[in-house]
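Quick entry, no commentary yet.
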Amino acid sequence: FKKVCDGAFSDFKKNIRIQKSIELINDGYLKNSTFDSLAAETGFSSYSSFYKSFKNIIGKSPQEYFLNSISK
């Protein structure tokens, strides 16, 4: 997997999960749910691991991304 996808499977999984969380944010998931439930919905074991992965991949915290998405 590492040779074909140029990275570890765990990194690939995190990227897929973060992309899914972005889709959910953009579709209004947070109107009726919390960031904790978003983390659980996308397969993260805790909000902390979700937050770290999101910030690392997107460059913003989930809250910053959400606030920017609703101000557009």
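second:
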Amino acid sequence: MTTWKEHKQELMRNPKFKAAYDALEPEYQLASALIKARIAKKMTQAEVAEKSGVSRTVIARLESGTSNPTLATVSRVANVLGQDVKLARQ
């Protein structure tokens, strides 16, 4: 049986797959940072949603990386979590 790690290594050899995977890195970093900050604050998605003025669904989508949020939305959520939003050139 092949493990996910082995399968991923094989997939990463395909240039098209690797490009698509790498393109998702900013979304993954955002989702990961929001989850870590929320957990560190010991808050639920519902609590973050209420304090930031968005729905819990918006928070869930942010954390799953399945949305294309505005900078304003990300900033509102980050503010509730005591975080700053910083943009960097790559």
